[in-house]
Write a structure and sequence with these properties.
The complex is a heterodimer of chains A (about 160) and B (about 575).
Chain A (H helix, E strand, L loop, with lengths): L1 E9 L4 H11 L6 E6 L5 E9 L2 H13 L3 E6 L5 E12 L4 H11 L3 E5 L3 E8 L1 H11 L4 E13 L8
Antiparallel strand pairs in A: 1-3, 1-4, 2-3, 5-7, 5-8, 6-7
Chain B lengths: L1 E4 H12 L3 E4 L6 H8 L5 E4 L3 H15 L3 E5 L3 H4 L2 H9 L4 E7 L15 H5 L5 E4 L6 H13 L5 E7 L8 E4 L18 H13 L3 E5 L1 H5 L3 H11 L3 E3 L14 E4 L6 H9 L2 E5 L5 H4 L10 E6 L13 E4 L2 H14 L6 H16 L14 H11 L5 E4 L3 H9 L8 E2 L10 H11 L5 E5 L11 H7 L4 E6 L4 H10 L15 H7 L3 E5 L5 H10 L5 E6 L9 E2 L8 E2 L7
Parallel strand pairs in B: 2-3, 2-4, 4-5, 5-7, 6-7, 9-10, 9-12, 10-11, 12-13, 13-14, 15-16, 15-17, 17-18, 18-20, 19-20
Antiparallel strand pairs in B: 1-8, 21-22
Helix pairs in contact in B: 1-2, 1-7, 3-5, 3-17, 8-13, 10-13, 11-14, 15-16, 15-21
The chains are: A alpha+beta (about 160), B alpha/beta (about 575).
């Protein structure tokens, strides 16, 4: 099953490599990975999406917790949560395609953030399935370049991941 | 406040940490540190002949004393040579701090002479590693390193020290921190009371219980609590190869150790049990055999300081995260207070069954009128040293024979590389033990394959006068490899034969030691007695043993705990 694990990590050199190394060392899967400092500059927040049986996920969270620089973590998929990923896409946009793409972008509630005579650059945020859906809708033949941020997530309601 | 250079701060920090010995080898990036070592006399440095041996020495010291070992090496090859030693300590959870020189911080990343990314190289085999980024950080980093190494589930910690952090003429205020602050590292100090209560209830209600103890009992200094609990409830106990000595082997409740080469009775009792109380062990594949066939009728209570060890390979019904000594203490007082007592009839019939398994004599070997059997060498050594020697071993058949036939009644005396299985471990580990236990008998039980992996340390033994006894069970082959080839590869002995063995006696003599060769069975006892009487000499005892002997029992691959070979022809 797919899981989103959110980690508060000491914002120190080498900390990220320990997390990434742990995954390859123990044969766990990383599907996406995002990391950036938080409002507390001593901490980074890292979000990793992974998949595995319950037993594997339990081991992943335990092994992550064992890393000295991991301060706190939560498996967001254990509760209600919001998942977002940002995507920038360059699309071939000429002739009648231009209007069609514009409509599709509107339907997906994206924005065209750069325009040339033959190319639209589209920005889209949402969960990973929505981003996949957009690519499918515009058709892969018109896609020139895709960049995705990887998943970020946060729990719904009052729950917070903080010190 | 005193003003000290980074190098002096490092050595002062070691003094303030109470470090007695450093094992190491100098080199360019570590020279400021070596100079600081030279100008003091509190911390004693032992110069090895290869950095791997320095780590195994520190490891042997740590296993025998329960205190963290310390290693000092230079950058690049000095650092990379420590990796096998660090991995050995990591797998067996041995507390240790490895101080590595590094090229100057201004050169890092430029492929400078003797530069290696030791932080990256060591990362998968350390509990943690730390890099010095400013000389002022040194006291705090050293304090943290020892704290992390020795607390919780212990392990090796590497400290990477760029040369410019130790420059002699740059001085800073020195103060050794009293406390360590680590918001993200708080090892459990006691177990969950509710879980412990539940465990005690299950324990008292069991009909076919067994205690399965591991190296965690020794590391957690909980042998006394374990022994008291086991004796009080009267249940059978087995332990892992890492747990040897955590409970007296000569006691009648002790079934020997379990697993791949464990005793028949221990493996049978595990398989047929209805309750396993696992204390500080980790259900390693060499213990469980095929996990899906593991102890089908047993419910499992698992006590461990490391939550990640629980339900990693075998699911626990009652997990208890905490230090084994504290948890066992609580269990003891609950067992004392409990109104329920163990089911006397059920336990009696369980013991009757176990005694039948014992009477079957699973661990046996055929003696021969003229060929020396490796097992009888070990039995004789055990008798001649009253079972009180410190015994280190290398890896292979001799290791299994030593573990099977030397009976340890005390913890910290059996010292082997159980997790990583590092050949070359035995001699340097024995040296680390002998250094701090000069009046105790220290035996290194080895084979002609393993001993050659760190044979150069005979030179270190001469320099520091370390009269260990090297017991070389010489079967002129890589015995365990050959055994597997006999059993699984129709006796095709691919590269398991040691051609061109050196004359070990002359070799020992060349290093300034004594050598004794034993080829005839009738000489065995007399010569071993002579060797053990040579208190002040390192003696290399080269014993020609049966070249065709196999280690039994041996669990059948991918079987359950109870599926074992008991001899070359007998399978149960």
């Amino acid at each position: 099953m797919r899981r989103i694990i959110s980690v508060l990590l000491e914002n120190e050199p080498g900390a990220l490599s320990r997390v990434v190394g742990l995954f390859s060392q123990r044969n766990y899967n990383i599907e996406t990975l995002t990391v950036a400092p938080t409002e507390d500059e001593t901490l980074s927040r890292l979000t990793v999406t992974t998949s595995g049986s319950d037993k594997v996920i339990e081991q992943i969270t335990k092994q992550l917790n064992k890393l000295i620089e991991v301060v706190k973590l939560v498996d967001l998929t254990e509760g209600a949560h919001i998942e977002r990923e940002l995507m920038l896409v360059k699309l071939k946009a000429t002739g009648s395609q231009r209007a069609e793409i514009k409509r599709t972008v509107d339907i997906f509630r994206g924005q065209i953030v750069d325009v040339t005579s033959s190319v639209y650059t589209v920005q889209l945020a949402g969960d990973s399935e929505k981003l996949d859906g957009f690519i499918q809708a515009v058709g892969t033949s018109g896609v020139l370049e895709v960049v995705r941020s990887g998943v970020s997530g946060i729990a719904r309601g009052e729950k917070v991941l903080s010190l | 406040m005193e003003l000290l250079s980074g190098a002096d701060m490092l050595i002062r920090s070691l003094q303030d940490e109470g470090i007695e010995y450093i094992y190491g080898y100098p080199g360019g990036a570590a020279l400021h540190i070596y100079d600081a070592l030279f100008r003091q006399d509190k911390v004693k440095h032992i110069l090895v002949r290869h950095e791997q041996a320095a780590v195994h020495m520190a490891d042997g010291y740590a296993r025998a004393t329960g205190k963290p070992g310390t290693v000092l090496v230079t950058s690049g090859p000095g650092a990379t040579n420590t990796i096998t030693g660090i991995a050995t300590a990591f797998m067996d959870s041995i507390p240790m701090v490895v101080l590595c020189g590094q090229v100057a911080s201004t050169l890092i990343g430029e492929d400078a002479f003797q530069e290696t990314d030791m932080m990256g190289v060591s990362r998968p085999v350390v509990k943690h590693n730390l890099s010095v980024r400013h000389p002022e950080e040194i006291p705090e980093i050293i304090r943290k390193a020892y704290y992390i190494a020795a607390t919780g589930r212990p392990g090796p910690v590497v400290v990477d020290i760029p040369k410019d952090m130790t420059t002699p003429n740059e001085r800073y205020e020195y103060a050794y921190p009293k406390k360590v602050k680590l918001r993200s590292y708080n090892p459990a100090i006691r177990g969950h009371a509710g879980q412990i209560k539940k465990a005690v209830d299950m324990l008292l209600a069991a009909k076919r219980p067994i205690i399965y103890a591991g190296g965690g009992v020794i590391l957690g200094k909980a042998s006394d609590q374990l022994t008291e609990l086991v004796r009080m409830i009267g249940y059978p106990i087995t332990n892992t190869i890492m747990g040897i000595g955590c409970y007296p082997a000569s006691d009648k409740q002790h079934l020997g150790w379990l697993g791949m080469h464990g005793t028949y009775e221990a493996n049978m009792a595990m398989h047929h049990s209805d309750l396993i109380l696992c204390v500080g062990a980790r259900f390693d594949d060499r213990v469980t055999n095929a996990t899906e066939k593991f102890c089908p009728g047993a419910r499992i209570i698992h006590i461990d300081i490391d939550p990640a060890s629980i339900s990693k390979t075998v699911d626990a019904d009652v997990p208890i995260v905490g230090p084994v000594d504290a948890v066992l203490k609580e269990m003891l007082s609950l067992v004392k207070e409990a109104k329920e007592k163990p089911d006397a009839d059920a336990i009696a019939s369980w013991w009757k069954q176990i005694d039948e398994w014992r009477a079957f004599h699973g661990m046996r070997y055929e003696t021969s009128p003229d060929v020396i059997k490796p097992q009888e060498v070990i039995e004789m050594l055990c008798r001649l040293t009253n079972g009180e020697a410190f015994v280190t071993s290398d890896v292979g058949q001799h290791q299994m024979f030593a573990a099977q036939y030397y009976k340890f009644d005390k913890p910290n005396r059996w010292i082997n590389s159980g997790g990583l299985g590092t050949m070359g471990f035995g001699l340097p580990a024995a040296m680390g033990v002998k250094l701090t236990h000069p009046d105790d008998e220290v035996l290194c039980i080895t084979g002609e394959g393993s001993i050659q992996m760190n044979i150069q340390e005979l030179s270190t033994c001469k320099q520091y006068n370390l009269p260990v006894k090297i017991i070389n069970l010489n079967n002129q082959a890589l015995g365990m490899v050959k055994q597997w080839q006999d059993m699984n590869y129709e006796s095709r002995h691919a590269e398991s034969y040691m051609e061109s063995l050196p004359d070990f006696i002359k070799l020992a003599e060349a290093y300034g030691h004594k050598g004794v060769r034993i080829e005839k069975k009738e000489d065995l006892e007399t010569k071993l007695k002579e060797v053990l009487a040579m208190k002040d000499d390192l003696v290399f005892v080269d014993i020609y043993v049966d070249r065709f002997e196999h280690v039994y029992p041996m669990q059948v691959a991918r079987g359950s705990m109870k599926d074992m070979w008991l001899s070359k022809t007998e399978r149960v």
